[in-house]
Amino acid sequence: MTKSCSATHKFASKLLNGIGAVALTVALAGTANAASCDSNCLDNMMQQVLRQMVLHQPGDLRFAPGAVIVENAVRSDDQHGSWLNLEKIRSGQTFADPSTGQVAYYGAADTSYGLSALFIRLKVADGAITEQEIFSKGGEPPAPAAPGATPAPKPDYSGLLEPDILYTAVVPPDRRENRAALIATVHTYLLGIGKHDGSIPSFSYRCDRYSAGSKFTDNPAVPASRGGGTCATALNGLKGQMPVNIRTPIVDEKLGIVVAFFIIPHGERKVQGSTNVAEVFKIVDGKIRSIEEFGGGGKYPPTSGFPDES
Amino acid sequence: MKSYYYWQDLNSRLECKNQTPFLEALTLGSVSMALSLCHLGRKRQTAVFGAALALLIGAGSAQAASCDRNCLATIMQNYLSHLTAHNPAGLPISDKATSVENAKPTPLGSGAWQSVSRIRSSQIYTDPITGEAIFDGAVDTKDGLGVLFVRLKQVAGKITESEITFSHQTTPFSNPANMLEPDILYDAVVPPERRIGRAQLIAMVDNYLNGISIHDGSHVAFGPRCDRYASGAKVTNSAAHPADKEGGTCAGSLVHLTGELVVNRRIAVVDQELGLVGVMFIIPHDDHTPPASTHVSELFKIVDGKIRSIEEFSFSGGWPPDSGFQSDIETGTPDTKRVQNMHPSPEFLHQVLSGPPPIVTFDRPLAATTGQLQVHSATIEDNHGYFPIKNTGWANSISPAVSWSAGPAGTKSYLVIMEDGTAGMKTRAVLHWVVFNIPPDTTSLPEGISQLPGGMKMGGNQGGDAAYTGPHSPAGGPIFHYHIQVYALDKLLDLPSGATRDQVWAAMTSHVLAKGQFIANFQGPRI
């Protein structure tokens, strides 16, 4: 415990030094220092973050003064959680959007507690990170079982070890949507979540949804009665209210990709809470072809640490 | 977007590009991908098709003796243009061309040629090695929306084979409307570190066909996201197809199949970059009354050595099973009758696919040592890890070239032993070859060795002969694995030619200084 706190303190000091630095030599292949950061630049920034996370120190990374740092919807003045426990990046995909200066990573990493699932979003401006949002699962010690109860098995994130190359497929020009239409398609999905009505969104006949790498729809292990079924029917049994804090920071028209963040409030629960969600959508022909979902329990009233953009 | 897999060297991925723009794809010659971007049912059909055709004609010549992907795609596009115009006149057709529709001889200009009026969606994949191209898509027909699958083979720019699967029915195993939106998954480039070789791709598909044959998908490598679609209708993981109706997972869906050993296997197209294999085959149904057959064309997407997705196009055929085309038989296989008479039984396939592996010499205590030798076989490595047919019992059965790194100080001789380590075979691995008393200054054996210089001797093989006997695994069977093992010994073995393996084991025990092995594969001729 003491060792861990000490490590945290040392790390925080290094990070604060990093944030305070005005001029640092960032040896990136792209142009992370440029005011405009293209896709390669954003990818390289994400890769450097992942590399430094495994080293548990920010290194040459530049964080802008006042950078917003959030993990699992908890804001912090210094790096914590995944920055301290990642041991090795095992797999992943990145999605970048130069028009917003944002990049997301989704994949699996080794931690001292086993394989974890990781979703990271960065916002970059003038070569410095202004926002860092992380969702992580599996990198924490297992929750103690109730007296007499069997400890819950650790969730299986191995489905993230082989990222689906579907997301790398270029959408033919005549099957693409523009940025506004892609975002609108995602909003219809969120409306379907809020209204618990899967007939609202437009799904491809091949649509499937994967939650932290595990197949959720069209999976006999997750029947419709437990929220499974098709992409459409899986929404019909949902609980919770209309999604809030909707953000769509990354859009790629060529690949038909939208990375979205939102929160489903659960005011209906006895102990009110929320579900914070990050999702990657693949959209072809104006229909949702596939969804990668990463969700985690949150507080009530809902908060992500970032403003609603919808 | 970038994709990373098992990050071991982050820097090495910095330059990774997983997507290729349309024009860039043309430049790179990945025309199968580029053309499949043409969703011809939309308003840009004409423009895209025209632009692609113009570029293709410029990039590759359909008249060339060697037809590359561009050339093959052009031939297919040209064929489809003539088909929708209901007029084969002007197509480059060989005088001896074979034209078949739903397994029946059908002259070009008949059948689908008279019905199909418009290509609504399109996927085209090609293979310069086979000289073949395949197309699948939704088409307008005089009876409504239909599904069309075409395979063409060309030689020197002329079509020698035309094979069509054509239907316009909507059934649990066919949904033409879904075919209007072909899955772009098939056009995704597989990252180099997630690809497998051509031979491995073919072997995976053969293994799938073996799974169909024995109604057991548990030995087939499926990706966790695998699904199978039949003419656009989702068959696996679909509420419309429960497990006992050929549904369930990709693996489970094979369990309730009927029919016998899959025959008439023909690999039409392999594309390593896209992880694609297009194959045609027939499932005989001798169990039906009257006997019948199911003719199938399938397109596989394979990533990480696992089947990610399958597109299937099938129709019911007659008896005996006959597609009008001969099955693929490895070059050099001399006798078709021999192939046809060596079908493995379902019981044999079960045994091979699920039984425990035999213990080869390498894994026996007598050979315990920490010293390691690096063993290679140029003959086999040049053939993607598979025995060339000339080294097998299906042809000349000449011994492969073998080489190895030098043994440690004190090495007095080398011993080479080749055994069949295929699972489910006999408890004792089948013995193919033993050479011992190889001088310490010799670290290789040439291909086809017969005279043994320098005191070298051959032990007895499985048949008791002091000779090499090549792999002779059954036609249509799974991949067999042969362990070519080399031992550095601290003595010469005082054994005669033709010594048994037991004698060799006894003589070498406690005298192994180092060892190494090379595992080579062989799959009997396709049936």
Layout of helices and strands, plus pairs?
The complex is a heterodimer of chains A (310) and B (527).
Chain A (H helix, E strand, L loop, with lengths): L1 H19 L18 H17 L7 E9 L2 E3 L5 H4 E12 L4 E10 L2 E12 L2 E10 L41 H17 L7 E9 L2 E2 L17 H4 L7 E9 L4 E10 L6 E12 L2 E12 L12
Parallel strand pairs in A: 1-6, 7-12
Antiparallel strand pairs in A: 1-2, 3-4, 4-5, 5-6, 7-8, 9-10, 10-11, 11-12
Chain B lengths: L1 E4 L16 H7 L2 H6 L8 H15 L9 H16 L8 E9 L2 E2 L6 H4 L2 E2 L3 E5 L4 E10 L2 E12 L2 E10 L30 H17 L7 E9 L2 E2 L28 E9 L4 E10 L6 E12 L2 E12 L18 H5 L5 H9 L16 E2 L2 E2 L1 H4 L20 E3 L8 E8 L9 E9 L5 E2 L11 E2 L20 E11 L11 H8 L3 E12 L4
Helix pairs in contact in B: 3-4
Q: How many strands, which pairing sense, and closed or not: the largest β-sheet of chain B? A: 7 strands, mixed
Largest sheet of chain A: 6 strands, mixed
- The CATH superfamily label of the largest domain in chain B reads PEBP-like
The helix tally of chain A amounts to 5
Number of strands of chain A: 12
- Return the domain count of chain A: 2
**CATH class division of the largest domain in chain A:** Alpha Beta
Structural class of chain B: alpha+beta
CATH topology value of the largest domain in chain A? Nuclear Transport Factor 2, Chain: A
Determine Rg of chain A (CA atoms, Å): 19 Å
User: What is the mean predicted local confidence, pLDDT of chain A?
Assistant: 87
- Which strand order does the major sheet of chain A show? 2-1-6-5-4-3
Please state the oligomeric state of the protein chains shown.
heterodimer
The percent range for strand residues of chain B is: 25-35%
**Regions of chain A with pLDDT < 50 over 5+ consecutive residues?**
1-34
> In CATH's first tier, which class of the largest domain in chain B applies?
Alpha Beta
> Termini distance of chain A?
42 Å
Number of separate helices of chain B:
10
CATH topology of the largest domain in chain B: Phosphatidylethanolamine-binding Protein
